[in-house]
Each structure stands twice: as structure tokens, then as C-alpha cells.
Amino acid sequence: MGQKTNPVGFRLAVHRNWQSRWYANKKDFAKLLAEDQLIREKLMEKLKQASVPRIFIERASNRVRVKIYTARPGIVIGRKGQEIDKIKDDLAKLTGKEILLDITEVKKPETDAQLVAESVALQLERRIAFRRAMKKAVEIAMNLGVEGIRIQCSGRLGGSDIARREWQRKGRVPLHTMREQIDYGFSEAQTVYGKIGVKCWICKKEAEATN
């Protein structure tokens, strides 16, 4: 049986960073980890339309710094900063701690693996042909100068009775080479036939790499 590992976790010790950066003793660790998960779930649910690929969380005593990466910062900030204040208040009520929010814009959403996977999943939900959706995403990413991209869809593709897996690749995506900057994203499309999983791997050049 094939042994698969997450490309982000595989590279953590080399040149990727953790998405939660804090230290806790054994007694508090589980509670803080669950709190991180809750913060992420709430934000992802609230900012569904804002194209958020990842959220970084840092802690210092009773203060939590949440860094939101988004392709649409206007939606997160809202008119005159109303939305961001509301998010801050909601998270403060949820955790009972002081919340500091940072918004970072994703300059090229077409080369972010998580956003590409979500975009393909959204197209599948709108009943766009899966091959066409994958091909378009691959071409756009390659035109924007990535080293390589691979997209894989799994499930009842095109409404067929038997679930199958199909993928498209262009360029080089060396998953076993730890020094390569591989960005990975996963999303699910809720279609009338059931769930279709979408995975995306993007090999970036050194300068474009994200932590």
C-alpha cells in the first residue's frame, strides 16, 4: 500500500513553518490546541467568500495574534473596518483573551494551492466539467510562472456510478525532494452525486515560497 505524507508537514523541519507558533506546558497544551482549531473553524466559516488559504496563530501569555492570509482583504476588513472589529469581538468572546488581528493579502491567488483547489471545487459544484476546470487552473498557474502544478479530482466524476480518480499535471512536481517549495491544498465539492475531493500540488520557485 502506498505510504503518503502531507507535503507541508514533510517539509516542516526544512523550510516550512508551523501554522501555530506558541509554547505551552503539558497541562495546557490540549486546551490551547483545541482553541486554535475553534478559531480557525469560526474564521473559515465566517470568511468563506474572502478566499482565505491559511491562518497563522501566535500566543503570548493572555494575548492571541491571528494572521489572516486572504486574496480579498476588502471583504475581511469591511466598510470603515467594521467587519474586522466584529471578528475581533467575536473571537475575544469565544476565547476570553485579547485578540490582535493582522490581514495579509495574497498577491497571486492563482498560484496558491489551497485557493486553486477551492476554485476547482467551486466550479464542480456549479456543474462545470471537471477536466475543463482542472485544465484551466493548470494553464493559469503555469502562465504565472510556477515550476509545475498537479491537480487531482476523486469521486463520482461527471455523475458516473463508479467513483474514480483523474489528474492533470504540467511542469515538474518532485514530491520527494525536501528542498523543493511544494505548496499543497485540499478542498471538497458538495455535488448532487456526493462529495468530490480536489487536491492540488504547486511547485514554486525559491523567491515565491510561502511559510
TrEMBL record:
GO terms for biological process: translation. It comes from the Bacteria. SUPFAM superfamilies: Prokaryotic type KH domain (KH-domain type II), Ribosomal protein S3 C-terminal domain. Keywords: Ribonucleoprotein, Ribosomal protein, RNA-binding, rRNA-binding. SMART domains: KH (SM00322). It holds the Pfam family KH_2. GO terms for molecular function: mRNA binding; rRNA binding; structural constituent of ribosome. Gene3D superfamilies: 3.30.300.20, Ribosomal protein S3, C-terminal domain. Belongs to the universal ribosomal protein uS3 family. Binds the lower part of the 30S subunit head. Binds mRNA in the 70S ribosome, positioning it for translation. This is Small ribosomal subunit protein uS3. The gene is rpsC.
